[in-house]
Every structure is written in structure tokens, then in C-alpha cells.
Specification:
The protein is α+β, with helices and mostly antiparallel strands and about 240 residues long. It folds into 2 domains: about 130 residues, no CATH class; about 80 residues. Helix content is about 40%, strand content about 15%. Strands 1, 2, 3, 4 and 5 form a 5-stranded antiparallel beta sheet that branches. It is globular, with a radius of gyration of 21 Å.
């Protein structure tokens, strides 16, 4: 994990807009406060392949997860702490180890893989926010969210993310291929949900192209981070000895 998270004033402002109860403690180089959210898990997959994403939702929805966690993000150490002690208390009440609920030995949050670009806004939106939505879901339902269990080791996290990104790329390519040609945005959606196309299944070609590029870039990064297995290392060693 990088030793420091890079950040700009613009990124701090972006985070403040999304999570208004977080603030930047400049003297400590930390972000503190409450990370609050009202969200749910949504499956945007196709062809029998699930791709679970977290989306904001109305608190009246049956699957809504509304919660808030007191957190502290140490920008110099790239570490996140849940300062309210809720996760530790939950683990104790369930007779589990802290590690089972993804807390490290130093009580920091185990967030898996750091994003390819170690920028603050991506870190908070792609790593910190999903981590606490996962925790809130687990506390509310006493079960793992539909997205599944989070990996406990870096190598497992890399492998898991590679599988997820490959599946997502398959979904994007299928959507790109099946995009109705000539259908106007204000026409009824062909899926039959009685919504306008632009409010339902519409994704612009430009948006799909951007997502495909981002996913391919992410896959390239993850593959570069993937350590070869013991079997692969042994095979390479034997090949080298023969030469």
C-alpha cells in the first residue's frame, strides 16, 4: 500500500460535497468526521453474470441501508480507522475475530487493493465508502451483502478484482453490441418497464466507451500487481535450469 495519498483542494471539495459531515484537519493531514450514506446494492449484470454496484437510494426503499460511521483517514499513512468502535463491538457480540469483519491488527480497516491512481477522491469513493456500506449491511442483516465476502489477503483481493473486472468488461461489451440503433432517448424503453429509454436502460456510446477503457486500464493494473503462484514460479525455475 502506498505511504501517502495524494490530494488536491478540488478533491477535498468533491468529498465534502458527497459526504458533508467529513472535514479536513490540515494540521494532522487527516480527514475526520461522519461518513453517512443512504444506499443499496444493485445488480447491473446480464447474461447470468452479476455485477453488484452501490447506488444512492430513497430511505423509504425496502433494501435501503441508511447509516453513518465515525471515521478517520490518515493521508500520510494511507490508513482508515472506524473511531466509534462499532465494528469491534459487533465482532465481539457475534463471537468473531476482528479480522473476520475486516479489521487489521492495528485496528485499521482492511480495504483490500488500493486504486491504481492513489488519489484521495478515488480512494474515498471506491474503497472507503463501499467498505462501510458493506459493514452497515452486515450489521443490519447479520449476513454478507449480495456482492459477496471481501477478500482477506492482498493476493485474494487482486484475484477477486480481476474476476470482477473481466465479468464487468463482458457486460459492457454485450451492452455495447446490443444497444438499440436509432432509438430516441424519450421513446419507451425496450425492456418493457414503462419508463423512458433515457431513464432506464439507455447508456450513451460515449459512456460505454469510457467505461470499457477504464475497465481495461484497471485490468492491466491488477494483472501487473498479481503475484505469480508457487506452481508458476517452479515451472519458470525448471525452464531456466534446462536452458
Amino acid at each position: 500500500m502506498p505511504t501517502m495519498i495524494r490530494y488536491t483542494a478540488e478533491e477535498l471539495e468533491e468529498i465534502r460535497k458527497i459526504f458533508p459531515n467529513l472535514y479536513y484537519a490540515e494540521d494532522e493531514k487527516k480527514i475526520k468526521g461522519e461518513l453517512d450514506f443512504c444506499a443499496h446494492y444493485k445488480d447491473i449484470g446480464c447474461d447470468g453474470i452479476s455485477k453488484w454496484v452501490i447506488e444512492p437510494c430513497n430511505r423509504n426503499q425496502s433494501d435501503c441501508i441508511e447509516d453513518a460511521y465515525s471515521i478517520e483517514i490518515d493521508l500520510e499513512k494511507a490508513s482508515v480507522f472506524e473511531t466509534g468502535g462499532r465494528i469491534e463491538r459487533l465482532a465481539k457480540s457475534l463471537g468473531k475475530k476482528n479480522a473476520d469483519l475486516h479489521l487489521n491488527d492495528d485496528h485499521s480497516c482492511c480495504l483490500g487493493i488500493f486504486p491504481p491512481a492513489n488519489r484521495l477522491s478515488r480512494f474515498v469513493i471506491e474503497q472507503v465508502y463501499p467498505y462501510f456500506v458493506w459493514q452497515a449491511y452486515y450489521e443490519k442483516y447479520r449476513s454478507v451483502p449480495p456482492c459477496g465476502e471481501c477478500p482477506h489477503s492482498r493476493s485474494d483481493a487482486v484475484s477477486s478484482r480481476i474476476t470482477d473486472e473481466k465479468n464487468y468488461l463482458h457486460i459492457l461489451l454485450r451492452k455495447q453490441k446490443s444497444q438499440p440503433k436509432g432509438r430516441k432517448r424519450n421513446e419507451p424503453c425496450p425492456c418493457g418497464k414503462k419508463k423512458k429509454y433515457k431513464r432506464c436502460c439507455y447508456i450513451s456510446d460515449k459512456e460505454i466507451d469510457i467505461e470499457i477503457k477504464k475497465t481495461k486500464d484497471s485490468l492491466s493494473y491488477l494483472k501487473s500487481e498479481q503475484k505469480p503462484s508457487a506452481d508458476t514460479l517452479r515451472r519458470k525455475k525448471k525452464t531456466k535450469l534446462r536452458q
